Amino acid sequence: MQLIKNNLKTLYSFLKKKKTDYYFVSTSDEFLNEYVPDYNMRLKWLTNFSGSNGYALVSEKKNFFFTDGRYLQQANKELPKNFKIFDLNKENLIKFFAGLKNKSVLVDTKCFSKNLIIEISKSLQQSNSKLIHDKKNLIDCIWLERPIEQKKKFFILEKKNCGEAFGEKLKKIRPVDNNILVVTSPESVCWLLNIRGYDLENTPLVFCRAIITKKEIEFYVNKKKIPKDFVLTYKNLKIHDISLFDQRLKRFKKKNVQVDNQLSYFFYKTLGGNKLFFKDDPCKILKSQKNKIEISQSKSAHLYDGIALVKFYYWLEENYKKNKITEFEASEKLEKFRKENTNFFSPSFPTISATGANGSIIHYKPNKNSSVLKHGELYLCDSGGQYYGGTTDITRTIYLGDKPPETLKLIYTKVLLGHLNISMLKFPAGTKGYQLDSIARFNLWNDGLDYNHGTGHGVGSFLGVHEGPQSISKNTNNVSLKPGMIISNEPGFYKNKSFGIRIENLVLVKKSLFNNYFEFETLSLFPYELKLISFNLLNSAQKDWLRQYHNKVYTKVSNLLDKKHSEWLKKKIQINN
Questions:
Q1: Can you tell me the mean pLDDT for 240-257?
Q2: How far apart are CA 544 and CA 74, in angstroms?
Q3: Which residues contact 524 (CB under 8 A, 6 or more apart)?
Q4: Contact, 221 vs 207, CB < 8 A?
């Protein structure tokens, strides 16, 4: 923590030299991704916060930090004591800035969306304060041991893993007339060009941008990352180094340019703002609806995952009593089992491996000095894999012991009921995710309980584990759930400093038997913790669904296991109630 204090002091001294009152920084970087590479973890370097959503407003006299409910406990644990921490669900960030009187705030506007910076600027003006663009990024200037970007060459996906050629995708998004489409999201460009890379630890991205017109497409990337076969395959592509992108945008100041609402404020200003028209990035909705090949690849990935999970939980059950297994060692072992599959690429996010009280920290990440798994505690493991063609994300909460307390069984079952009700749901076309959210929370709400995160997030095809635009949460989102979308189903409950329970599967939106209705098909393949279920709280339809799901897990996975693992799985799926 002393190192963090020194980093803050260095920043304060530079703010003094620039005669600026505050510095504003977030977890994001210039690509506006949820996750960032280690060399862009500026907020972590400054504050020690390791979560994926946070904002810090720092000065020599006062330091403020803002995050959502998933990370409040984590922020309180990781940040220096001189930070005042706010819950973004309760404190309006924009209004907070209005309370700063006669102040100047330095910020790198490349790392923030144009909407947020515009609103903050308006708030500051109300109190005679101002926002100043940080042209060189102050943290980059003072971060002496900043990691170096790795320049590993990206690769082209085979059609068997993506199902649709670049040319076919381009036809669907290409602008008409003299319009210009600017795509700043690396995830969208990777999807469009059917390429993947190594620029993020858990997401197979290469950082890139694109400018698309009726006649040509310009691709911006670090040229050192281009493989030889790419130039031969994409002959009609104009390739530029990504360092030139900012300058190239200036050509379009007086032209009709289509951009996504998530455009950074810096690019918004670079483009002039006059003839811009904001429309959702066309790649986002297209990539959210998986084609037949992508769906098939996802199902294969979940089968691979199911095999690894059986081996992991078998190993855990056999060893946690006799060996001191830490949360970190457990997460490493799970990754080892996933790596046994030749299609495995990487974890899809840092594994949340949490025993006992650590389970109440929603995005807990164990380190090498983490807690030992103990008999009589709940163990929550939220993990996933990137496989060539598919992305997985699954959470199971198990009890380390034979007979769990009735209080834990009751809460686990309440969480499970919400999970099952989403799994079994049929809903009319046009339904939005926020309209389903209360169905997952209903049984918890009846006992005055809730959870401080969304019920479901979209998932990519060998891309981001958190993918928009679809979601299931309390937050209003006007994107309808459509066939081909993959989304998580993950209600939970967390008792502060005591335990956490989360149950998560990935589900596929598909057509239902009823005309103009949809339903979910569960993709994840691993049984629930039967000893934590109070079956008297389930109705017959829920019990039937549970039996059918467990039979599906056994049928698909058992033939790919050896005898000991297959017999163990058979015991885990048997429902006697």
A1: 89
A2: 39
A3: 302, 305, 306, 392, 394, 504, 505, 506
A4: yes
Which is it for the CA torsion 319, 324, 325, 327, positive or negative?
Answer: positive
At 24, is the secondary structure helix, strand, or coil? strand
Are residues 36 and 58 in contact, defined by beta-carbon separation less than 8 angstroms?
no
Residue bearing tokens 């403020």: 64
**DSSP string computed for 473-538:** SSS---PBP-TT-EEEE--EEEETTTEEEE-BEEEEEEE-SSTTEEEEEE-------GGG--GGGS
Distance CA 56, CA 58 (A): 6
Q: What is the rounded distance in angstroms from the CA atom of residue 313 to the CA atom of residue 529?
A: 11
The conformation of residue 480, written as its DSSP 8-state character, comes to B
Beta bridge partners of 396: 381
SS3 content of the chain, % helix, strand, coil (to 5): 40, 20, 40
The edge-to-edge listing of strands for the beta sheet with 378-383 is 352-355, 378-383, 394-399
Where does residue 238 rank: exposed (0-12), middle (13-18), buried (19+ CB within 10 A)? exposed
* Joined tokens for residue 558: 């058992």
Tell whether pTM > 0.85. Answer: yes
Inter-CA distances, 295 with 207, 428, 461, 483, 555, Å: 25, 22, 8, 11, 20
Amino acid symbol at 508: L
Give 279's pLDDT tier (boundaries 50, 70, 90).
Answer: confident
Q: Which amino acid is at 452?
A: N
pLDDT tens-digit profile of 176-221? 877 899 999 999 999 999 999 999 999 999 999 999 998 899 999 9
Q: 3-class SS at 501?
A: strand
**Diameter over CA atoms, the chain:** 73
Count of Cβ atoms closer than 10 Å to residue 454 Cβ = 22
- For residue 159, give both structure tokens: 């059609």
Burial grade of 474 (CB within 10 A; 0-12, 13-18, 19 or more): middle
Please give, one letter per residue, the 3-state secondary structure of 348-409: CCCCEEEEHHHHHCCCCCCCCCCCECCCCCEEEEEECEEECCEECCEEEEEECCCCCCHHHH
Cβ atoms of 373 and 357 within 8 Å: the answer is no
Going 347 to 69 to 497 to 447, the CA torsion angle's sign is: negative
